[in-house]
Amino acid sequence: MKYDSVLLVAFGGPTPGCCKKYDTKNCPGEAYCFVEGIAGEAESQKERVKDISSHYVKLGGFSPFNELTFKQAKALQNALQQRNLPLPVYAGFRHWTPYLNEVIAEMAEKGHRKILGIIMAPHRAKVSWEWYQQTVKKGIEAVEGEKPTIDYLDQWYTHNGYVGAIAEIIKTACGDKLDRAELVFTAHAIPQVAADTSPYSQQFEKTGEAVARAIGKKRFSFAYQSEVENSPIPWTQPDINDWLKAKKEDGVDTVVASPIGFLCDHVEVLYDLDIEAKETAEACGIDFIRAGTVGDHPKFIGMLADFVCEKSAK
Fold it and tell me: Do 39 and 147 contact (CB within 8 A), yes or no?
């Protein structure tokens, strides 16, 4: 076969178990370790680390991200088996265990040498695609002996499988409120300079436009979430909370938010939308409906499986 394994390449989130950065007695908590690992240890970042890690604490101290990604991996492996392509599917993370280098070492130890990678980010920016690929490259270089090779699936941000899954999820979340609800698509905010040098925002908007067509909504908006507070540099706008306040002035009473920039319901969705944005909406007298992410929706997983089969046949 052209490939002997599949690797889901994802961000990761804190799970129970000391991060090993601190000794167990002095560990400030997995969420703190996780956020500090992303933001850095500089004194100027300490308040930011405390603030963001507190979001995890409010939701139990951990993230469902890894578990949900493992579910996606299992669903994809099953879908491939049904297509007579019995490839094992692994998942590795850039910011938490099992780290990508750990998973790549495990795959190499098991004899896998021809890996097909799937980057679990629908819209391309340096902080997602390029950094993920760099991390994978380092993991491969660290393998002793014969090193694996890796190819990647192309992007799928307007494919019917992804778009169709989102459309079904929105319809299920809204029920009979869909016609009157104001539809807003959200994605993670990134520094504006990063957006100016990548296709991230354009791809985000193309996904939203395709979903809106699929559900027959002619009016829809785009907003960003999870912006770093008090940042000295501008980030992509509008922020979802500012957008909601503006909609109050327009007399909007029902909003459905679809986080199409995320592939599973992890903390930045569960906190930034389900808690913060919902509180903003309630303060504005707006009925706030948050549609789910694609997760292991059959249409989404089926799309990935079809792409793996096509790539394997070329």
Answer: no
